Amino acid sequence: MTASSLRVAISGAGVAGPALAHWLLRCGHRPTLIEQAPAFRTGGYIIDFWGTGYRIAQRMGIEQAVRAAGYQVQRLESVDDEGRVQASMHTDVFERLTDGLFTSLPRGDLAATIYATVADSCETLFGDSITAIDPRHDRVDITLGNGGARSFDLVVGADGLHSNVRRLVFGPDTDFEHYLGCRVAACVVDGYRPRDELVYVTHNVPGRQAARFTLRGDRSLFLFVFRSQDTTDPGGLGARKALLRRKFADAGWECPRMLDALDDAEDLYLDVVSQVRMANWSRGCVALIGDAAACISLLGGEGTGLAMTEAYTLAGELQRAGGDYRQAFPAYEARLRSLIARKQRAAQGFIGFFAARTALGVWLRNLGIRAMNKPWLTGLIAGSVRDDFDLPDYGM
Ligand SMILES: Cc1cc2nc3c(=O)[nH]c(=O)nc-3n(C[C@H](O)[C@H](O)[C@H](O)COP(=O)(O)OP(=O)(O)OC[C@H]3O[C@@H](n4cnc5c(N)ncnc54)[C@H](O)[C@@H]3O)c2cc1C
What phi and psi, each to the nearest 5 degrees, are found at residue 59? Predict the structure, then answer.
């Protein structure tokens, strides 16, 4: 099948989905974004943004907007129970490793910046979700939760770690999701004190990390990571707050105060820390990108950039194949598989950084943070920071 203008249903308007829509529109295709949230969500937890994803942002023409939303973090600090700094790392190590193409910003702000490039030209169905996918010989029919039925040429799942399209077409989450033994919670609160501008402050005790980052507008981001055998969602907001209280009430430092500050929060993100590993990222005319295909987890700190890389490469290979998905989808996978596998392996090595198992592990973590200030030792993390990937030019 070749077509000059493909109708593409994209499930999920997070990072990968709008990025794919951007590149498809540039190639003259007709994407439709289907997002379960009732409206586009901004803000959320802070992400580091660099590497190939950053270079793609430059090609999309959004670098200035990304930097304007970003924070040029100066230092990462590790503090003890009393808030005394045990280890500190200047972030110029990342500046050096990424040639200055590095910033940190709320995930939702990156997503919104990408979405702004397509909002006026791409059909978006908010508050809806695909409930059935039925490939035919010349099209693919989908059913929507709100009762509609539509036909497309291709369907792409860009609906995150717990992808709906993956479940419908490839099988249950348990076939692909690899839990890494930790859970993560994140929340933005108003008016918290103290504030430390451009410093990422972390506090580790065995099996747990609490961290905070000062945001503009008198807000602060809290991040909690903890080891857990239990992966069940405790339920609503109150139950999530109660779970964090159980885990962090005795963790020292500002934890009791942070937990009190959570009482007023109306939104609290809580999820498993997992990777998605699949033998194939496409089946027939259905493909997956972003976390849906190959989540590396927050431990890798590069999921957004890789999601954008997958979106760019999928659109580029479609362009190169004249719209023939039978050529384009395998080519997309072949180009990215080894990069993603390397990133997933590297991410697993950072579990101890987020939630060291023992007191010795916490001590070693602090030693590692101090060591990163020595230019001759930064090579130790260069492999996981640098992408070692030639970004193709598809002429899009
Ligand atoms: C705490 C935390 C910290 C992180 N830190 C970093 C970092 O420092 N750097 C970095 O690059 N990455 C980081 N990541 C990872 C990064 O957030 C993800 O890799 C990235 O957001 C993946 O983009 P995506 O578009 O594939 O998925 P998502 O951003 O998750 O977007 C998926 C979208 O699909 C929608 N959706 C879900 N189900 C359905 C459905 N059934 N129908 C329709 N729509 C649906 C969702 O509402 C969402 O809008 C972090 C992740 C976490 C959790």
Answer: -65, -25
CB neighbours of 90 closer than 8 A, spacing ≥ 6?
Answer: 74, 75, 373
CB of 251 closer than 8 Å to CB of 205: yes
What would the mean pLDDT of 201-226 be, rounded to a whole number? 98
Atom of ligand 1 nearest to the CA of 16: 25
Encode pLDDT of 131-153 as tens digits.
999 999 999 999 999 999 999 99
Q: What is the pLDDT of residue 44?
A: 83
Note the pLDDT of residue 96.
82
> Per-residue pLDDT tens for 314-327?
999 999 999 999 99
CA of 207 to the centre of ligand 1 (A): 24
Task: Give the chain's domains with CATH numbers.
Answer: 7-71+91-176+275-353+369-385 (3.50.50.60), 180-274 (3.30.9.30)
Phi–psi pair at 124, nearest 5 degrees? -130, 130
Among protein residues, the one with the nearest Cα to ligand 1's atom 2 is 298
Name residue, tokens 């990215």: 336
Residue 333 has pLDDT above 60, yes or no: yes
- Give SS3 for 28: coil
pLDDT in tens, 237-265: 999 999 999 999 999 999 999 999 999 99
According to DSSP, residue 138 is labeled S
Check if the beta carbon of residue 394 is closer than 8 Å to that of residue 55: no
Q: Kindly state the helix (H) or strand (E) to which residue 180 belongs, with its residue range.
A: strand 177-190
Judge whether residue 3 has pLDDT over 90: no
Other Cβ atoms closer than 10 A to 135 = 16
Q: What is the pTM of this model?
A: 0.97
- CA contacts within 13 A on the Cβ side of 132: 9
Contact (CB, 8 A) for 103 and 66: yes
pLDDT bin (cut points 50, 70, 90) of residue 1 is very low
What span, in angstroms and rounded, lies between the C-alpha atoms of 264 and 114?
31
Q: Determine which residue's CA is closest to atom 53 belonging to ligand 1.
A: 298
Name all residues whose Cβ lies below 6 A of ligand 1: 11-17, 34-37, 45, 47-49, 107, 129, 158-160, 164, 184, 186, 271, 290-292, 298, 301-305, 307
DSSP state of 377: G
Token pair for 4:
């000059």
Give residue 291 CA to ligand 1 midpoint distance, Å: 7
